[in-house]
């Protein structure tokens, strides 16, 4: 960490005062799967050849094996050591060779077995391994196995997945509801056998029955045959489809709206994808390969798998995370293909890399795929200016690199018409062909500028050769000394040869140097390499993070001003980058500085966030606060009408005080018809009578102030109630109010007036409603009872500023800006484009459109800044304590930063962080989801702003329900421990779960209008009354509560938990708040590390100034013994969860043995008392001795 500091200090010095600075530095330490040397494949570049388009030797227009043989010298020239070939087996070519009719023979299009032997011999002589495509899920329906199975030939009856089915009215009634990838039932009736067979893909591709041991054996025989033949490994196609549920259960609906019943995505494929038996089969194949290697003493036969699935389901294809069973040597990493898109920035790139490395178990070898025969070419996906940089990044990152043929010369997509196309799914519909076809990335390789780019001798080619071949071809680029894509690519492959020391030590860290520049630091063995990449289109000069010594340029992109072998001197660590420049540097001193990289025998992945605060004693009250969100309606009812109110809150101020709460957020309490629970306001300056009076509110402010508690109120600026007098006046076109709302005449469509555009409201359906009286449409981004105010009207701006001033004068401590992103709309009222994933939604669903005209507009952001200035001016003019502004924006994370500020102007003091609510949602979430969620926030939120963490609110299911009640303490600890502000929704401190509410009892307007979806969408469950004690109505009211009190209140209530010395959620929560009081606001330097320790345990480690704190959280249901990162030997337990075997204030001596760790952090190697496995639940540890540690000293002593 020391190396980072000088630069950070420099940033602080020029930037600002009293601000925390936090670069995002993800550090991953990688371990070699085997303990010795790197195996041949671990650092290899696998070059994917698409045989049909590589080289045509006999001039029939189709590439072939003899063509590949002819061009092997090209692979050799690049420095390629391994290639994998798309399918070349005998096939009727219904699905481009993925329908195989003979696993043991070559399709005549490509040649013969003899040609393959020749290819292997020549490739091996050149030191190139050859991997073949293995298509295991299905065969062609022309395969003899299938023909015999149809005939029930003995031994083949059950080779495929057969099932009885019925014919009714000439229609097949299939055994269950399964749907094929290519639409319609996955079952096909076969009249001859009078049964149905399963096909997860085309009808001509029947699924093999892997529950039949004969099939398993037959397929293993195929693997052995090809290994005997001399093949070096297999790329296994679509492996996640191998097994299906034994019971043939119907799959549940996905509930993705507007998907036709015969569409693949209509169902949630829990019974046909990623089955446990599927993973087991992959592990068995690995055993076949490993056994073969061992018995025959050959080089490793490698297996790579293709599975487009979630990241959680992807990793087990590698094997179990502890390595006790192994699967593929690597399973394709499609992150760059699927999650990186045109216009990406540094954060997107960082995110993409870190996401993969976070989830990858540290014992496995990473891999990086930029493209393949199923995805558009890199140059076309991102733009030609990115070709070098992306090749550099994939070459630079640790592990296997995969290159699709043509990417090394920067080939773009070819030009193919629907008529010329061959992609079987795409040519069925010529209108969608330009979007859907995969022919563009499959056009012939461009070798030179002769006829047909040298692909053949001039006969028609199966797909047209791209017109660009005259400029873009290998011969033109392969000129010594020329700045070309190809020469950059070649240098990269040479550089990678130095990465073979990975076996000893390998780490990668990712640092965002500025908004547009990222630096990757790779330390392998004794070498240090640095890649610096300017993603933006402007010149950038940045200081890069460095150790010591001069830096030498290894390779730079073809337009760079840096040339190979240029030196950047030790005393000048500034690098000047042109637009899209990327440079790889080598630290010339690292060989002699080798001692800094100690051999690491124990590794784990981790991310480090480093923070520096200057003059932290000057922190304002809100920067260290716990904000407690009160939902007034359900908190405490003082007058027996069943609805919580202001006097109820006043009654409970002592409770807040006793708990340690210093600030509250009150959900909307303004005058309202309560159609949307107070978010439809009729008077912004008055309190709704159900909550009390303005005087009650003033009393609350006074009493809260006496208790040292701040009161933040909701501000609902986007819309009013349709019963607001402003709206009434606007409808009547009263002078001064005509343009208070967003009115529109509508669009004349052939004489009929239609809505002005396609905008959709948050709750579905058009965002426009016709008003008869005014004879115009008005806009409502929410319900039609909530018309949008017109912010282009200066009178509206003034009226709303007036509201803010009014409440500031009354004495509120701040505002939470409701629905901040939607204030302004595009004044042109143009249609919004369809969202990328629009097909997953109903056409009237809000998610169907990209909201580039109605959300996050520049004008909206600037208005937020104006309001911040108004509030800051008020604070300054009146010389009062700081008033704060909090913004609510469920915007993409990359936009969230703008609500904080843009570097010149300030926005919200903080913008609510909804990541724990929106991303840790899967019921099977694991520790990596949580650590990733934390990392992601740090990646996207710019330096200089204070972080914030919340688990839930009145719009999302309760944390105890989402995460499990046994995880309540753990999650409260996480958000209390992380740097920044903690936000708690009332009830979370006692672990309240969702209440039980029926549709008839409910109030949420979007839910009660349709009882069939009530359970799914209602927000009433998290709004049931607070559970104070076990009396009637849980002590919430003496009357009838507006929403029923949860039946769990008898067990889960404050009184039962608030007992001195009792181990309870509430007491844990109180301890956490006390811990924060002593902890949060004191540091000049603060470092946070996030670690996933094994599958279920996470560690958060903070090293502020002279202290050290650690949080260990076991999210699993079994005991775990873990090695964790530490600096000291003796610790004291500060807080332990309700079920923990550890007790508060008990000393723990964890010192057993130590090993050196990266940057001198010491990690406890092994902690295991004989015969005793200790359950480390959630333990917050503080080192016993908090003696001042001289950080400089620590670094120097070990450096
Ligand atoms: Ca040919
Ligand atoms: Ca299957
Ligand atoms: Ca009341
Ligand atoms: Ca608006």
UniProtKB/TrEMBL annotation:
Residue ranges annotated for the Glycosyl hydrolase family 13 catalytic domain, each copy included: 48-442, 629-1023
Catalytic activity: Hydrolysis of terminal, non-reducing (1->4)-linked alpha-D-glucose residues with release of alpha-D-glucose
Matching SUPFAM superfamilies: (Trans)glycosidases (SSF51445)
EC number annotated for this UniProt entry: 3.2.1.20
Entries under Pfam families matching the protein: Alpha-amylase (PF00128)
Domain of life: Eukaryota
Protein name: alpha-glucosidase
Organism in which the protein naturally occurs: Molorchus minor
């Amino acid at each position: 960490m020391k190396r980072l500091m000088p630069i950070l200090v420099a940033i602080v010095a020029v930037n600002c005062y009293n601000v925390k600075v936090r670069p995002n530095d993800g550090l991953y330490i990688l371990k070699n799967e085997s303990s010795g040397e790197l195996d041949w494949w671990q650092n290899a570049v696998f070059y994917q050849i698409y045989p049909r388009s590589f080289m045509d030797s006999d001039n029939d227009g189709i590439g072939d094996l003899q063509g590949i043989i002819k061009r092997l010298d090209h692979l050799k020239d690049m420095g390629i050591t391994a290639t994998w070939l798309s399918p070349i087996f005998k096939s009727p070519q219904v699905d481009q060779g993925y329908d195989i009719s003979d696993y043991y023979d070559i399709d005549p299009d490509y040649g013969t077995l003899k040609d393959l032997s020749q290819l292997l011999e020549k490739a091996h002589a050149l030191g190139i391994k050859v991997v073949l495509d293995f298509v295991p899920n299905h065969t062609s329906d022309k395969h003899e196995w299938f023909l015999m199975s149809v005939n029930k030939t003995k031994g083949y009856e059950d080779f495929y997945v057969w099932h009885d089915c019925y014919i009714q009215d000439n229609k097949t009634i299939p055994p269950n509801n399964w749907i094929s990838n290519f639409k319609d039932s996955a079952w096909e009736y076969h009249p001859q056998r009078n049964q149905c067979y399963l096909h997860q893909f085309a009808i001509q591709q029947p699924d093999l029955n892997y529950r039949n041991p004969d099939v398993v054996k037959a397929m293993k025989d195929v693997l052995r045959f090809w290994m005997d033949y001399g093949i070096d490994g297999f790329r296994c196609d679509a492996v996640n489809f191998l097994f299906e549920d034994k019971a043939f259960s119907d799959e549940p609906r996905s509930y993705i709206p507007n998907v036709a019943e015969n569409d693949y995505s209509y169902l949630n494929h829990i019974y046909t994808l990623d089955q446990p038996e599927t993973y087991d089969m992959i592990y068995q194949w690995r055993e076949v390969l490993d056994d073969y290697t061992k018995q025959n003493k050959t080089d490793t036969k490698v297996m790579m798998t293709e599975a487009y699935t979630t990241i959680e389901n992807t990793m087990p294809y590698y094997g179990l995370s502890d390595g006790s069973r192994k699967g593929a040597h690597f399973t394709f990493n499609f992150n760059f293909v699927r999650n990186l898109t045109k216009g990406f920035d540094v954060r997107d790139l960082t995110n993409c890399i870190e996401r993969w490395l976070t989830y990858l178990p540290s014992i496995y070898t990473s891999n990086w795929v930029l493209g393949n025969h199923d995805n558009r070419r890199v140059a076309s996906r991102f733009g030609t200016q990115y070709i070098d940089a992306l090749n550099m990044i994939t070459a630079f990152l640790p592990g296997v690199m995969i290159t699709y043929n043509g990417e090394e010369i920067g080939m773009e997509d070819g030009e193919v018409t629907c008529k010329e196309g061959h992609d079987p799914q795409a040519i069925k519909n010529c209108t969608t062909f330009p979007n859907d076809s995969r022919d563009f990335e499959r056009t012939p390789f461009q070798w030179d500028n002769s006829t047909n780019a040298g692909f053949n001798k001039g006969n028609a080619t199966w797909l047209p050769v791209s017109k660009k071949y005259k400029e873009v071809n290998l011969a033109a680029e392969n000129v010594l000394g020329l700045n070309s894509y190809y020469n950059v690519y070649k240098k990269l492959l040479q550089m990678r040869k130095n990465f073979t020391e990975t076996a000893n030590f390998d780490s990668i860290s990712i640092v965002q140097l500025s908004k547009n520049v990222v630096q990757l630091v790779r330390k392998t063995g004794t070498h240090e390499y640095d890649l610096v990449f300017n993603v933006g289109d402007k010149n950038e000069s940045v200081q890069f993070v460095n150790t010591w010594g001069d830096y030498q340029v290894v390779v730079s992109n073809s337009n760079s001003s840096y040339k190979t072998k240029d030196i950047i001197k030790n005393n000048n660590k500034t690098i000047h980058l042109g637009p899209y420049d990327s440079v790889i540097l080598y630290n010339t001193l690292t060989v002699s500085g080798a001692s800094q990289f100690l051999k690491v025998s124990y590794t784990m992945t981790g991310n480090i966030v480093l923070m520096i605060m200057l003059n932290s004693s000057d922190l304002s009250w809100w920067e260290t606060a716990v904000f407690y969100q009160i939902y007034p309606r359900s908190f405490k009812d003082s007058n027996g009408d069943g609805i919580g109110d202001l006097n109820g809150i006043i009654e409970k101020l002592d409770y807040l005080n006793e708990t340690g709460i210093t600030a509250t957020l009150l959900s909307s309490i303004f005058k309202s018809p309560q159609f949307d629970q107070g978010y439809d306001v009729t008077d912004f300056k008055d309190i709704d009578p159900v909550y009390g009076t303005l005087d009650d509110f003033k009393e609350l402010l006074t009493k809260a102030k006496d208790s040292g508690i701040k009161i933040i109120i909701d501000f609902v600026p986007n819309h009013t109630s349709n019963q607001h007098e402003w709206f009434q006046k606007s409808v009547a076109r009263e002078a001064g109010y005509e343009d208070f709302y967003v009115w529109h005449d509508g669009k004349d469509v052939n004489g009929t007036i239609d809505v002005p555009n396609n905008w959709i409201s948050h709750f579905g359906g058009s965002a426009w409603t016709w008003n008869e009286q005014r004879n115009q449409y008005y806009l409502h981004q929410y319900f039609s009872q909530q018309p949008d105010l017109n912010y282009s009207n200066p009178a509206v701006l003034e009226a709303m500023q007036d509201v803010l001033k009014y409440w500031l004068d009354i004495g509120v401590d701040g505002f939470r800006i409701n629905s901040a992103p939607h204030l302004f709309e595009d004044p042109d009222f143009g249609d919004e484009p369809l969202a990328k994933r629009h097909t997953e939604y109903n056409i009237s669903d809000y998610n169907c459109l990209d909201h580039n005209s109605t959300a996050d507009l520049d004008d909206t952001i600037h208005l937020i800044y104006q309001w911040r200035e108004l509030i800051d001016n008020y604070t300054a003019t009146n010389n009062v304590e700081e008033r704060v502004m909090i913004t609510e924006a469920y915007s993409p994370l990359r936009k969230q930063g703008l609500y904080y500020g843009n570097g010149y102007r300030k926005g919200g003091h903080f913008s609510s962080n909804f990541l724990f609510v929106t991303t840790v949602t899967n019921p099977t979430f694991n520790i990596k989801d949580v650590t990733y969620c934390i990392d992601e926030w740090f990646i996207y939120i710019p330096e200089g702003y204070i972080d914030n963490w919340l688990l839930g609110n009145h719009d999302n299911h309760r944390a105890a329900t989402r995460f499990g009640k046994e995880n309540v303490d753990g999650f409260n600890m996480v958000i209390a421990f992380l740097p920044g502000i903690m936000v708690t929704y009332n009830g979370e401190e006692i672990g309240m779960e969702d209440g039980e509410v029926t549709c008839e009892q409910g109030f949420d307007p979007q839910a009660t209008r349709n009882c069939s979806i009530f359970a799914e969408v209602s927000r009433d469950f998290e709004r049931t009354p607070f559970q104070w004690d076990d009396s009637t109505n849980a002590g919430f009211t003496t009357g009838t509560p507006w929403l029923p009190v949860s039946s769990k209140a008898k067990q889960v209530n404050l009184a039962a938990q608030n007992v001195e010395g009792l181990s309870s959620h509430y007491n844990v929560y109180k301890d956490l708040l006390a811990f924060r009081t002593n902890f949060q606001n004191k540091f000049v330097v603060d470092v946070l590390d996030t670690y996933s320790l094994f599958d279920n345990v996470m560690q958060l480690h903070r090293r502020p100034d002279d202290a050290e704190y650690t949080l260990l959280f076991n999210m699993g249901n079994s005991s775990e013994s873990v090695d964790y990162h530490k600096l000291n030997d003796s610790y004291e337990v500060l807080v332990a969860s309700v079920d923990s075997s550890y007790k508060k204030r008990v000393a723990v001596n964890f010192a057993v043995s130590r090993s050196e760790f990266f940057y001198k952090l010491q990690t406890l190697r092994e902690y295991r008392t004989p015969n005793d496995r200790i359950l480390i639940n959630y333990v917050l540890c503080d080192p016993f001795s908090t003696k001042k540690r001289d950080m400089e000293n620590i670094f120097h002593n070990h450096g």
